[in-house]
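User: Show me a protein chain along with its predicted structure.
Assistant: Here is one chain, sequence first, then structure tokens.
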Amino acid sequence: MSDRGLDLAVTKMRDAEIGDLAIATFARLYRELESGATGLIREADVEPLRDIDRAQDLDVSDEAARQAIGQTVVIKLNGGLGTSMGLAGPKSLLPVRDGLTFLDLIARQVLATRERYGASVPVVFMNSFRTREDTLATLERYPDLAVDGLPLDFLQNREPKLDAETLEPIAWEKNPELEWCPPGHGDLYTALQTSGLLETLIERGYRYASVSNADNLGAVPDAQIAAWFAASGAPYAAELVAKSDADVKGGQLVVRRSDGQIIQRETAQTLPEELDVANDRQVHPYFHANNLWFDLVQLRDLLAANDGVMPLPLIRNLKTVDPGDKSSPKVVQLETAMGAAVNVFPGAKVIEVERARFLPVKTTNDLLLLRSDVYDLTPQWHLVARLPAPLVSLGDRFTLIGDFETRIEHVPSLLEADSLTVSGDWRFGDQVRVVGDGRLVAGDNEPHIVPPGSTVTADGVS
């Protein structure tokens, strides 16, 4: 390959006024790709994590918790549009409970934490160009949320998609916006630096960051974990959750056999023929909750030692230029994962947390659960499960949020359910109960009604 592809990509990024460090990060990953790097991590080269710290075993004093949370900034990744659910705007504006959106609940969780500990805990959202305006407009409902001298958000970077055959920037006249993509959530570290927020936080006396996805309402500010992390002196820590039989995919942390370093392995970095082993909870018992902690000062030092470029491993993500059109040209997206920082921070730690800290909403199945009576909303705005959540599979008629809202105007009771499987076009009446393994099956295209006050069991509706 010549330098043409990289030169064209760099020119395109400069014309879009993208910062030098973001361009340098892209160039590093491009050279890795050009050299044949795939980012794949073979099972034979790693071994599972064992004997890790557990959050439920922590014994932290109130004073240590108060001091640590007072030095912590909460960062929420909020660049997603929720296109897989048919959303056109920020996913975090989707109502979750009692008409409250993800953003409403996050804001209230942070404000409740401040009140409990008497600490000025800032929250900052990493937005994309597509989510920034709507997010900030929504947060105006909370005039006390911003901490003096700190912004409520900073912007993630963007990069050109590359033609899979030529590795040159793709041109897509039908929708030029689709010529661009985010560089993966590993861009967090670059964006913190290029925005100036990293230095501002340190100057204001903040030492630690607690990072999670905006669609994970279980990742509430946690002073106990903050104190554990502060006492450890570690540069970085990841939250892990013990796998259940339902956890069949997702990133995980493993130990590199060659040097004993903990590293991150994403699904895209796993050989297809090794996915079954990687996802086997008897072999790898934990998955990464994508909640992480890092020391702001040690991050600054690591960036300085690498000329401002975070040395995260490449993820080569093969897509189509139009995600909604599988016949459109194939492109390569050069990505990194924020959790892969564990690879480059010597002394990084991990901690097992309760599943309550992992409540992501990736599909309407997840949304139905959080809206149901399985979860209570506490006075601190935490969503707490009253019992283990049943498995929900609503079928393709419910995938898009508009179809979901039309068909489930009334959320059924799932307290007595072990599972709910829906096949076909069903609409739920009010006060419906699901008991045991509820099944609704319709083989035709006609709409069917679950009558008000009825019960859904393995035998259908009664």
